[in-house]
Amino acid sequence: MLQLRAVAGGLWWRSSAGRGERAMTAGLVAAIAIAWVVLIIMVLSAAAGASSGSDGLAGMPGMAGMPGMPGMAATSHTPRTAGTSATAGTPGTAGLRGLSDMRGMDGSGDMPSLAATAGSQRSAAHHRMLGMGAGAAMAMWALMVLAMMLPTALPAVRHIAANSLRRRRTRAMAMFAAIYLAIWVAFGVIVLIVSQSWTALDRSAVAAGALALAAAWQLSLPKRRALRDCHRPSPLPPTGRRATTGVVRFALRNGTACVRSCWAMMLAMAVVTTATTFWMVAITGLALTEKLALKPRQATRAGAVLLAAGSLAVAAGALT
Questions:
Q1: pLDDT tens digit sequence for 140-192
Q2: pLDDT digit string (tens) for 75-110?
């Protein structure tokens, strides 16, 4: 109960806040709420599309053609229907994916050409990641960061407001939030580039591995150091360029510490394709509790247990 009260208190604005500070805080909270609404609508749309047989909506909806983000529909733009051949003259087959996965078919007529066609489609999807598909993936990542990670920065925003002069308080708060989000978006670019290395793997295996990695990171020494840096305040000069520099320095330090602390959980969020709403809420709650609770080490251990259980559940589901 004390942990929950500490989290709730850390998110509330100061009683002595001025009108500008209240407006900025309310604006940030509204942006977070809108991001959550949009994400939930997209997840529900993805579930509806999956139930109607639309293969391109696995994971995050509208992300077909971006295989680098399994949680954002790691499929090509070419629609496939189970039980329908992907080429003319081959009725009754399961499509290119099923044909390319068959064993012992190297000497059976045009089977190698079908496998080669599937390979060329995957290669084309890789190229699309760096074009319009990559832009859509980054937009989805930015939406996730806004909904899940910005709430953890609200106490730091309060620190900026409490240590800034009234005439520059709103600008300093906005500057901090913008830099904090930019750091997370930059990390998303790295995830998008690195994700090309696992596009050929099974989605469930990737998700189970990412959750296991996040669980292990929760118990590591670098995680504890990063979490300690997240709680570290920073002196802010009151006026002039030194005040602006102080805000920028604090935003960079706090944002990079948050990425170091939560990168594994957000990576898992990017690749999970089932129970996405649950994992969004769970990871947001874990990050908030670690950042704001009176005893963050307890929250870290609890998070490791939850992530490890999720990894086992995903792996078991893939095996069955």
A1: 899 999 999 999 999 999 889 888 888 888 999 999 999 999 999 999 999 98
A2: 334 444 444 443 444 444 344 333 334 344 444 444
Residue 157 near residue 52 (C-beta atoms within 8 A): no
Residues 223-239 as b or e (16 or more Cβ within 10 Å = b)? beebbeebeeeeebeee
Confidence (pLDDT) at 63: 39
Q: Can you say whether the dihedral through the CA atoms of 131, 137, 67, 85 is positive or negative?
A: negative
- Report the C-alpha gap between 167 and 254 in whole angstroms: 24
Judge whether 101 and 119 are in contact, CB under 8 Å: no
Nearest to 232 by CA among 256, 253, 248, 262: 253
For the beta carbon of residue 152, count every other beta carbon within 10 angstroms: 24
User: Is residue 272 within 8 Å of residue 207, measured between CB atoms?
Assistant: yes
CA dist 264 and 258 (Å) reads 11
Q: How far apart are the first and last CA of the chain?
A: 39
